[in-house]
Write a structure and sequence with these properties.
The complex is a heterodimer of chains A (489) and B (472).
Chain A (H helix, E strand, L loop, with lengths): L3 H7 E12 L38 H13 L3 E2 L2 E2 L2 E4 L9 E4 L6 E2 L2 E5 L5 E13 L3 E3 L8 E3 L6 E7 L6 H18 L11 E11 L9 E6 L2 H20 L10 E5 L4 E4 L12 E2 L6 E2 L2 H9 L5 H10 L5 H7 L3 H11 L5 H19 L10 H12 L5 H14 L5 H7 L8 H14 L1 H8 L6 H11 L6 H13 L1
Parallel strand pairs in A: 13-14
Antiparallel strand pairs in A: 1-11, 1-12, 2-6, 3-17, 4-5, 4-16, 6-8, 7-8, 8-11, 9-10, 12-13, 14-15
Helix pairs in contact in A: 3-4, 6-7, 8-10, 13-15, 13-16, 15-16
Chain B lengths: L4 H9 L5 H19 L2 E4 L1 H17 L9 E5 L26 H8 L3 E6 L33 H8 L5 E6 L5 H7 L2 E4 L19 E6 L2 H11 L29 E4 H4 L6 H16 L4 E4 L4 H19 L18 H12 L2 H14 L4 H25 L2 E5 L15 H6 L5 H6 L3 E8 L5 E8 L4 H13 L1
Parallel strand pairs in B: 2-3, 2-4, 7-8, 7-9
Antiparallel strand pairs in B: 1-3, 4-6, 5-6, 5-10, 9-11, 10-11
Helix pairs in contact in B: 2-3, 10-12, 10-13
The chains are: A alpha+beta (489), B alpha/beta (472).
Amino acid sequence: MLTYEQARQKYELVVGLEVHAQMLTQSKAYSSDSTEYGSMPNTNISVITLAHPGTLPKFNKKVAEFAIKMGLACHCNISEYNVFDRKNYFYPDLPKGYQITQDKTPICRGGYVPVKTKNGVESQVRLNRIHMEEDAGKSMHLAEEIETLVDLNRAGVPLIEIVTEPDIREPEEAYAYLTEIRKLVRYLEICDGNMEEGSLRCDANISIRLHGETKYGRKVEVKNMNSIRNVQRAIEHEFMRQVELFENGLGDTLVSETRMFDATNGQTYSLRSKEALNDYRYFPEPDLQPFIITQDYLNSIKTAMPPLPNFLKEKFMNTYGLPEYDALVLTDTKEIALWFEELCSQTTNYKAASNWMMGSVKSYLNELNLPIAQFPLQPSQIAEIIGLIEQNKLSFSTASQKLFPALLDNPKTTATEMAKKLDLLQDSSDDLIMPLIAATLAKYPDKVQEYKNGKKGLLGLFVGEVMKGSKGKADPKKVNELVLAALEK
Amino acid sequence: MFLSYTATRQALLSGKTTCKDLVAHYLQKIEARNAELNAFVEVYAQEAMQQAEVIDQKIKAGTAGKLAGMVVGLKDVLAHQNHGLQGASKILDKFKSQFNGTAVQRLLDADAIVIGRQNCDEFAMGSTTENSAMGITRNAFDTSRVPGGSSGGSAVAVQAEMCLTSLGSDTGGSVRQPAAFCGLVGLKPTYSRISRYGLIAYASSFDCIGVFAHNVEDTALVLEVIAGQDDFDSTVSRTPVPAYTQNLALEGKPKICYIKETVENEGLSEDVKQATMKKIAQLKAQGFTVESVDFPLLKYILPTYYILTTAEASTNLSRYDGVKYGYRSPNVTDLNSLYKKTRSEGFGIEVKRRIVLGTFVLSASYYDAYFTKAQRVRRLIKEKTQDLFKTYDLILMPVAPTVAPKIGELAANPLQMYLADIFSVQANVAGIPAIAVPNGTDSQGLPIGIQVMADFFQEEKMLAFAKYLMEK
C-alpha cells in the first residue's frame, strides 16, 4: 500500500468545487416570505412557497444584485440576459416539483479566485460560473417516527452556486479557496458564510489520474461536509480511496457517484447503491421574464462595491508598509480591517497600530469572544495611546499593562485623561531628572568610584535609583543616557 | 334581460329588478337543468344570494361597481378564496384555494356575483369536457353532443342561462371552440393581457384566461375589468388597458385575410366551410377587402403546440404529488409509492398521456429533436403570423373544423380530438388575440362559429369587427 506522500507522487488529484451560498436577503427568491433562520417549522411560508395551484413566482431583484457583487469580486463576466430555468425532480422538500435555477445563462461566467495555501503556494482557481437558484426545504426524519416531516421554511431561500473549473490539485488549495470564498461573501455581506448551519455548503468533485495524463478520470461527487477543514479531510480520504482502487487493479470499478462524508470517521460512503442517472429536464421557466442587467445597473453596483480583502491586504502592505502576515491577519474579517483603516486614519505609526490590533485588542476580543463591533474603545483612543508612546510620555509596557485595561473599564475617557488620572505620564524633562541624578551619585560615592575603576555593571543601579526617584515617570532610555553622561564627566 | 349586461344594468339601476331576483332566476335555471347538463360542479346558492343583497344595497347607495349584478361562473381552474379548486381532477380532491386569483379578485371588486364553479376537462386538457373527474358536460342545444372543451361547463352555463358570463381558460382554443359549439362569443386575449395569477397552470407560455358571453359588449366589459398589470404575475403586460367598451364602433373597413390552408383543409366539414365562405362573400359584398393568403406552416402548428404544451404541462403538474395538499393514495408504503400511486390514481388518462408525452420531449435524448425544434418552429409561426398583419388588419378563419360532435365520438381517438384544435391553436402558439363569434347554424340547427384574430394588443380593433360580424 502506498503512503499518502507516495500516492501524491504517483497520482495527480483533480478537484472542482461547487459552493452553494445562501443569500442574506430579507425575503425569498421568488416570493415575499421571510428568510429568517430558526423560525418555527413551516411559518415562513405562503401559497407561493407551498406551490398552491395558480401561484406564480416573482423574482427578488436583490438576489441578482448579490450574485453580481460576488461575480465582480471574482472577476467574472456578468451576463446581460438572464433566463431562469426549471430543474425537474421529485422530492418532498421541493414543493413545485422543480427548482427555479439558471441552466444556460448563468448570471456570472468565468472569473477566478487567487488563493495561497498555508504552505505559501499561490495559485488561481478559475471559476466556471455563478448562477442564481432557490433552496429546498428540509426533510426531517425524527427518531421513533415512521413518517418524515417536512419543513418548508427554507424552500425558496435564494442561493448562488459558485462552480470552479477542475483546477484544484491540493487538498490545502481547496481549503484556501473556501476560506477565500467565505471571506468574500462576508465582506460583501451577501451570505453569513456559516458552514455549520448550512448557509455555505460545498460539494467536491474529485478524480485522480497518473501524473502526466491529460484526460480526466471518472469523478466522484462528495457531499455533506460541514466545515472547511472537513472538505479538506474528505478530499484527502477520497483521494486515497480512489488510489487504492487503482493500485489494486480495481480502477474500472470506480463509478461516477455521489458519496457522503462522515466527519466522525473521516470517510466517504456511497449514497446510492446503484448508479442513478438523473435527467433534470431543464427548460426555460415560462413564469418569469428574462432578467436584463443594463450597463447602468451594473455600474451602480460597481460603484457601491465595498473594499475587498485583497485590495485591503495590498494597501496595508504597500501603503502602510506592513508585513504580509500582519496584512493577512488584519484583513481576515471586514470589520477588523475597517476598524484598522479607521485607526490608520488617526495615526501614521502603522506598524505600532498593527501591533496593537494583533496584540492587546485581539487578545481582549478573543478572551471574551467578542466581535470588533463590541470592542469598547474607539480607534481614536488607540491612536492616542500610540501617540503618547511615540512622544515618550509612556512606555509600551505601562500602556499595555496599565492604561489599556483602565481605559477598557472606563471607555468614555480619553487616553491622556486616564494616563494623567493614573499618573502614568513620563516626565523626562531635565529639570526632573538632573537633580535626581545628582542626588543618586552623591548618595553612593564609593559605587561611583568602583564604576570609574571599571565596574561598568553598576550603571543599572544608578539608573534604577533615578527611575525610583521619578516614580517611574521618567523615560528609562533618557535616564540611561544622562546617567552615563554624568558618570563619564 | 338575461342575455345582456347592458340590459341587466339598466333594469337594476332603474329598479325594475334586483340582484336578488337575478340570482334567483339563475339558480332556478341551474336547479332545472344542471343535473342533466353538469355545467356547474359546485353552486354557491346561499353565498350568491347574500352577495346579491350587498350589491343591491350598493346600487341603492349609488356606489355599485362596474359589473354590479353581473352573475358569473368560474371554470374550475380559477382560484377563488375559500372555494373549491380542483381543475376537475381527483388529485385536487377537496382542495380549497386560499387566495383569489387576480382576475377573480377584479371581478369581485367590480361587484360581480360568482354563482359557482364550472366543469371542464381535467387541468384544461381536452376538447370536449369528457375528461373530467366530475363527469361529462352536455351541450344544451343537443344533450347527445359535447359542448366542446376544455371550458365546456363555462360555455354551457352561459348557453343555458345559468349565469350571464363565465371566465374560462384558453390554452389552445379552450374558450373559443366551446363558444362556437354552444353559439356564444368566446374571447382569448393577447397572451399576457390578463394576469395568470390564480389560474391553474397547464402550459404557462400559452395559458390565457378568456371570457364567455352572449355578445361582444359584455365580453369587452369583462376584459376591461380583469385585464392589466399585476404584481403577482411578472409575465403580465404593462401595456395600458384601453376602454374597450367605448370603442366598439367599427371605424373604416379593416383589411381582412383568410388562410387558404384553413378553408381548403380536408378535415373541415362542408357545413362549416360553407358558413365561412358565405361570411367571406358577404363581407366582400359589403365592400371589405377579404383576401386569401398562403400559410404553409399551418400543418406544423398542431405538432408544435402539442410538443410545447405537454412539455410545460409535465413540469407544471409535478406539484401534485400528494405531499402538501389534495389527494394522497391510501395505499402508500414509501416515498416512491406515494408518488406513483397518488399520481396514478389521482390523474385521469388524458392528463397522464400528456405528462408522459411532455416528459419524453424534455428528456435528454430527445430534447433537441422535439423541444428545441418545436421552440424554433413556434418562433417561425409567430413571425409568419405577424407578417400577415403587415398587410392585413385581421385574420378570419373557422373556429373548429366541425360542429359539436356526439358524446364519445372523439374520446376514443385522441389524435382526432387533437385535430379539433387545428384552427384555434395558432393564436396561442403566436400569442395573439382571437375571438369566436356565432356564424349561423348547420342543417341540423347546430351552432357554427367564426374566428377573428388580430395582431398583439389589437383587441379594440378585433372586438369592434366581431361586433360588426354579429350584427350585420
